[in-house]
Specification:
This protein has 120 residues and is mostly helical. Helix content is 66%, strand content 0%. It has five helices and no strands.
């Protein structure tokens, strides 16, 4: 391998390690969700794309706020794994879903328990 390629691989490795360490130790990552929300808004009604974009960004920020409150309740390994799975277009909704699914697989609900009521 050339020296330049080795340096590039080393820098990329440090970047990946730093990113996963950040996710585990420092809290919920700060992502720009506008790209993913723009795509979602454009997939909906053309007439309401601006309103859809605004709602999506607000929803993602609310999800991030909730994740910030609950972050330490998720195992560090799950946090790192779920952050790493966000490779294309980062969303807090997908991050929350990943963390919740990992939690639920580890602690399945008791079938005898009543179903939780959804908030309106």
């Amino acid at each position: 391998m050339s020296r330049q390629l080795l340096i590039a691989v080393a820098i990329a490795s440090v970047g990946i390690w730093s990113y996963s360490s950040y996710a585990v130790t420092d809290g919920v990552p700060n992502w720009d969700v506008s790209k993913s929300c723009r795509g979602a808004a454009e997939a909906g009604s053309v007439q309401d794309s601006a309103a859809n974009l605004k709602r999506c960004i607000e929803s993602e920020h609310q999800t991030r706020d909730k994740l910030s409150k609950d972050w330490s309740s998720f195992p560090a390994a799950d946090r790192a794994k779920c952050v790493k799975t966000q490779t294309f277009s980062h969303t807090y909704s997908e991050l929350a879903t990943c963390l919740e699914m990992n939690r639920d697989v580890r602690n399945p609900p008791n079938p005898a328990d009543p179903m939780p009521q959804r908030k309106k």
